[in-house]
Design a protein that fits this description.
- With 353 residues, the protein is an alpha/beta fold.
- It has two domains: 49-208, Histidine kinase-like ATPase, C-terminal domain (Heat Shock Protein 90), CATH 3.30.565.10; 227-346, 3-Layer(aba) Sandwich (Rossmann fold), CATH 3.40.50.
- It has helices at 2-13, 18-45, 57-63, 65-72, 93-110, 153-158, 176-187, 242-254, 265-274, 292-302, 334-346; strands spanning 53-55, 76-81, 89-91, 115-126, 137-146, 190-195, 201-208, 234-238, 258-262, 280-284, 308-312, 327-329.
- The strands form three sheets. Strands 2-4-5-7-6 form a five-stranded mixed β-sheet, covered by helices on one side. The protein has a five-stranded parallel β-sheet with strand order 9-8-10-11-12, with helices on both faces.
- The model is unreliable at 213-230 (pLDDT under 50).
- It binds adenosine-5'-triphosphate and magnesium ion.
- Residues 102, 106-107, 110, 146, 148-151, 155, 159, 164-167, 172-178, 201 line the site of adenosine-5'-triphosphate.
Length: 353
């Protein structure tokens, strides 16, 4: 975050020349590559964040058909073959979407000359001992099938291991199938891979049919257009990492705001209690002693309508955090920061009832 933020700010300050642009671009690209890797590692390691709920796989797949088609490119034809009626499955919606996207991208990489990519779904009743690793019950099997290069027996044996990849540096992290396998395990289902060299690959996601469960609302801030006219707020930035804090301050100042800083929730509470002119607090989530969410709960007792935004590197609001808190994902760019401020000032964040 510090690297990308600093480079993006440098970009606005250095007179442009082809050489400088190229160098800055290299730095930005490798920073983004690092971001993608860290995001995947976080998603992989934060398994307790799996949020299992009744999931309509038909809806989910139809909803991401455009994104998948764009990811696989015009040479590969996506064919969605779902039955008209399919029961809900028990899984994590976000993780299931990224699992399917990863499978589509794997298929694309295996079919450099194009082909077709059928994604199908079927309902099955699995009997006791019928499928190794699957308890008896009702399942939906989502399958992704490609006619690409396939995998050798050695590759197939290692494919779901974390960091195993046959792709060149920067192309693959080797966490894709490991994440898919972990998600299936957590969902109470199973990942089945069938493949042979030159014979394509069939990936099956066996997911248990859901009992009646509720979907949870999300408080993540959506992207919105930035309103450059909204400037000059008094903002309190809170982060225990001084380097990140310094970078956030530079970004906020560059946007024309007045910035105060605190390196802990306790220090931030002191400032909120003694300065009634703070328009917004931007706080890190993961801090020792007092988390950003705990800070917000106490700060709202002091000033109930104070807009507070939580910055977090985690894909979702951590369990136990106040769901009324809007999130800004780390690393954020100056543009995202401007959007977030604009948004939270137009619609002040409210504490949970
Ligand atoms: N559809 C497929 N066809 C052929 N080989 C595959 C297919 N899917 C996966 N593999 C093999 O399994 C390896 C691991 O896949 P995985 O999705 O875990 O990581 P990756 O695709 O290499 O990296 P990332 O998912 O981070 O982009 C791949 O590098 C590739 O060798
Ligand atoms: Mg992959």
């Amino acid at each position: 975050m510090v690297m990308l933020g600093s480079v993006q700010m440098l970009e606005n300050r250095i007179p442009p020349s082809p050489e400088v642009t190229q160098l800055l671009d290299n730095a930005i690209q490798s920073g983004k590559r690092g971001t993608a890797l860290i995001e995947r590692m976080l998603a992989f390691s934060r398994q307790e964040q799996t949020h299992l709920e009744a999931t309509d796989a038909t809806n989910l797949v139809n909803g991401m058909a455009d994104l998948m088609a764009r990811s696989i490119g015009p040479m590969i034809r996506l064919e969605i073959k779902f039955p008209t009626v399919l029961p809900n499955v028990r899984s994590d919606k976000n993780q299931l979407s990224s699992a399917l996207l990863n499978l589509a991208v794997n298929a694309r990489d295996a079919m450099p000359n194009g082909g077709s990519l059928p994604i199908a779904a079927d309902e099955h009743q699995v009997l006791e001992g019928e499928k190794p690793g699957l308890p008896e019950g009702n399942y939906v099997c989502l399958s992704v099938w490609d006619t690409g290069s396939g995998m050798s027996a050695e590759t197939l044996a290692c494919a779901t291991q974390p960091f195993f990849t046959t792709k060149s540096t920067g192309k693959g992290t080797g966490l894709g199938l490991a994440m898919v396998a972990t998600l299936l395990e957590h969902s109470g289902g199973k990942l089945v891979l069938r493949s042979a060299s030159g014979a394509g690959t069939l990936v099956e996601l066996w997911l248990p049919v859901a009992e009646a469960e509720e979907a949870a609302p999300s408080a993540v801030i959506e992207n919105c257009e930035s309103d450059a006219s909204l400037r000059g707020y008094r903002i309190l930035a809170v982060d225990d990492d001084e380097l990140v804090l310094r970078n956030t301050v530079l970004m906020l100042k560059a946007l024309g705001h007045t910035v105060m800083t605190a390196t802990s929730g306790e220090e931030a509470l002191f400032l909120v209690g003694n300065d009634s002119h703070i328009d917004l607090v931007l706080t890190d989530y993961a801090m020792p002693l007092m988390s950003g969410s705990e800070f917000a709960d106490i700060a709202w007792n002091i000033r109930p309508s104070l807009p507070i935004v939580l910055a977090t590197g985690y894909a979702k609001l951590p369990f136990g955090a106040n769901p009324a808190l809007p999130l800004i994902p780390k690393p954020f760019s100056q543009h995202q920061l401007a959007d977030m401020i604009d948004r939270s000032q137009r619609k002040e964040s409210q504490p949970a009832a």
